[in-house]
Each structure stands twice: as C-alpha cells, then as structure tokens.
Amino acid sequence: MEKNVLFKGSKKDFNDLLSNEMVEEYTPFMELVRQYNEKIRANDWAATKEVGQYNKEKIENVVIYADDFSSVTSHVITNFPNIIILGHDIENLYIQNAPKRVEYSLRVEFEHVIEDKSSNYYEASAEEIVKLYEILNAGEVIGQDDAKKQTCVGLYKSMVLREKRPLVLLYYGPSGVGKTALAKNISEFYHGKLTRIQFSMMQTDEAYKYIFGDEHGKPSLARDLLSRETNIILVDEFDKATPALYNVFYQMFDEGEFEDINYKVDVSNCVFILTSNFIDEKHVAGVVGFPIFSRIDTKIKFTQLTNDELRQVIEKNFSGIYEKLSEKDKIIIENSKLKEKYLESVEIFKNIRLLDKFIENDVFNILFESKLREFS
C-alpha cells in the first residue's frame, strides 16, 4: 500500500478531497467485504493462506465512507485488516470517520503510509463577524435584535480568546420566535448545513445508547459530531433531556473533546447553541443544575415578537408563497384579501412557526376552492 488516508469530517469535504486527488474510479468497501466472504470465509485455513499470498488482486483505489461502517457486522470491524489485506494489493485507501478499532488496526499495520486529514472548518474573523451581524439584522429572522447582538458578541469573544474549548450559548424563551432559525442562519454563514441534535427525543434507553455509544452501526452523538459540515452545533430543546444526560457535556464543554465506545471527536472550535423554553436564568439553573449552568458562556433571552414584527413575518411569508404562484393564482389570492385579514388579526399569533403553516394552508385552500368552481 502506498497511501492510507484517514479522513475525519463531513461527507462533503471527503468528496472534495477525493476530487482534488483525482480519485474518479474506485472499489467500494462493500465489494471487498463481498469478495472476502466468498474467497476467504468460504474456505479453510489453507485456502486463506493461498489466496492471501499468491492470488492478490491489484486495486488502485478503495474508498470507504462513514456510512459504509453502518452496513456491516461487528465481525467485519474486528477483521478489518484481513478484509483489506487478504486477497488484495491496494495502492490507495481512503477512509472517512473510521471507528476507533478500525483506525487502531490500520495504524498498527500501515503506520508508515498513513496520512491524517480532516475538514477545514470555516472560522470567521472580526470583520466577518461584524458582517454576520449585519446579515442577521437584514435577514430572514425578524426581531430578536438583542439575541443577534449577544450571539455575535459571543462569536467575537471566542475568536479573540481562542481557547481550546467550545463556545456554549443558551437560547431560551417561548417557542416559535426564531431560535432555531437564527442558528440555521449562522451555520449557513459558516459555510454548511447545521448539525442539529434533537434532545426532545432523548427520553428512553435509546438516548443513553446515542450519547454513550452502542453498536458501531447505530447512530451516535460522536459520529454525528464527526460528520458535521460546520462548527455550529444546535442542541434543540436542551431542557427536555433526562437530567442524567447533562453529565456527558462536562468534558465536552471544558476540554473540547468527546469520546464514546466507537469514536473520538475534537469539538474545541465548535459553537454549541442550546435551545430551550426556559422562562429566566433562575429557571435554567434549577433544571440543568449549576455544573452545566456554569459552563454556558452566554444565556440569551428570546422574547415574543411585537405586533409590528409579526406583521413583517406575515408580509415575508406571503411574499415567499407569492413568488411560487402563477399570475392567475396571485390575482385570486389578492382578491381574497387574505393577507389583509392576517394583518388585522396579528395579535392572536405568537408562534411564527405555526403562522407560516396557517398562511400556507389558507392560501392553497383558497386556490383549490377556486379550481373546484372552475371545473364544476
């Protein structure tokens, strides 16, 4: 073997690496597993020795994606070196987010040819953080001016201090006022899709398995963090988790590392945004406990939108739907005076996430009723 690239990071960046190294054709891992099962496991020890020593197939490139490890049994992970070596003469091996056991076995066998590579996550400068603040103020998230400013202050502080630990922000306040949307906007600015962890689902034994690791083929927190596209991590509905699970964040928030039974991940440059429906900081401390409360860098309160802000949301939502309608349908909606009715009743809406769905459903109910009359 001439090259063994151990890559840690997102699938998008791994594909970019393959493109840059002009790996256009390759043998997928599952094909090696199939050959191993047919040529090796189906024969006795003597046949294994013969295949391994005399009948090796020359392969230029083998590419193994993180998802490939989810598709194989534990036996494949345990016998990974044999599957790679026996029966094959591989020139270049590229692996995304290998489980710890696989990485260890490769380092023992091929340490002299291993190249460690990883995603080069975007980091904003002071000037760029100021630009982000301007974008957020003029962007999709309406209102929450103080939350936007405090978020950018936190990002700026983290950029200047450059501590080897993540920045931890808590967004708290009522539902449907822009917490998740703001996190998505920030992640887009940081050049990738937001990594979103739903703590509202963390109420059963599966939650513990997800957090602390289970079988290599099952989803886990460490694996999701390894595969992130940006350093912006949203832990949604942090207040809904079983309190015992908060312990797992101590080392992560203090030292910037997280490890389960299968994976180890560096999160020292990450920004963790925790969302919750807490009322105030006293409520936060009472639920999560002081050890976690003290590790949160900034607690950022989100408030109910004012009537003027809600009118801006209504105007924006109607505009977004209008752009997708035909000229004929636009006239139907304008004649219905639907937008005017919403603007007159703005005080009854508090959750902008629900408001978006209400408007969308009402628009298409009107259009469908029009079609029924047209064809009756």
Can you give a write-up of this model?
By secondary structure, this protein is of the alpha/beta class. It is about 50% helix and about 15% strand. The protein has 18 helices and twelve strands. Mean pLDDT is about 90; it is low at about 45-50. A hairpin with a 4-residue loop joins β9 (about 255-260) and β10. Strands 2-3-4-1-5 form a five-stranded parallel sheet, sandwiched between helices. A five-stranded parallel sheet has the order 7-8-11-6-12. It has three domains: about 5-120, no CATH class; about 125-300, P-loop containing nucleotide triphosphate hydrolases (Rossmann fold); about 305-375.
Flag low-confidence runs: 44-48
**CATH fold node name of the largest domain:** Rossmann fold
What is the name of the CATH architecture of the largest domain? 3-Layer(aba) Sandwich
Q: In total, how many domains does the architecture comprise?
A: 3
**Beta-sheet strand percentage?**
15-25%
Our Rg estimate from Cα atoms comes to: 26 Å
What is the CATH class designation of the largest domain? Alpha Beta
Give me the CATH superfamily of the largest domain: P-loop containing nucleotide triphosphate hydrolases
Please list the strands of the largest sheet in the order they lie side by side.
Answer: 2-3-4-1-5
Shape: globular
User: How many angstroms separate the termini?
Assistant: 72 Å
Count of individual helical segments: 18
User: Helicity, in percent?
Assistant: 40-55%
Question: How do the helices and strands follow one another from N- to C-terminus?
Answer: EHEHHEHHEHEHHEHEHHEHEEEHHEHHHH
Total beta strands: 12
The overall average pLDDT, rounded, is 88
State the secondary-structure class. alpha/beta
Major β-sheet, in short?
Answer: 5 strands, parallel
